Amino acid sequence: MEQAGLYIHVPFCRSKCPYCDFYSLANTSLIPKWLDAVKMEMALYKGRFKAFDTLYLGGGTPSFLPGPRLETLMTSIRDQFRFAPETEISIETNPKDLTAEKVALLKALGFNRVIVGVQSFDDRGLSFLGRQHNAKDAI
Predict the structure, then answer these.
(1) What is the pLDDT along the chain (139 residues), one digit of tens a residue?
(2) Which residues sit opposite 93 in a β-bridge?
(3) CB atoms < 10 A from the CB of 99, how many?
(4) pTM of the full structure
(5) How many Å apart are CA 63 and CA 61, to the nearest integer?
């Protein structure tokens, strides 16, 4: 089978934006069970693909995962699947989650593309959209 891209939906967010149609929860208590389920599903697909050439963590807001949980997820992904050289490894983030510590962790985990969810640099617009960050956070 030819190379394919791997998408993993991380269904957790700091809060649910009123405009968002993607499945997500603003509840961290389910993260451990979700991680266990993702590990089991990945095991079902192990060996079906030669190697992935992209890995995309979307959601929800994958950057909302606490550091140790994100590390567990990435370790599990690498244990189950092979990746092509120079794989693009992407993660969707919220400006509120991007502390210096979180950015360093993302780099250490091999992310080489970070998508920052900035819908506006206008505080009134961000408030209207139900976003948890303001223009200063986004910058």
Answers:
(1) 567 899 999 999 887 767 767 777 778 899 999 999 999 999 999 989 889 999 999 988 899 999 999 999 999 999 999 999 999 999 999 888 899 999 999 999 999 999 988 877 888 887 887 777 787 787 8
(2) 116
(3) 11
(4) 0.87
(5) 5
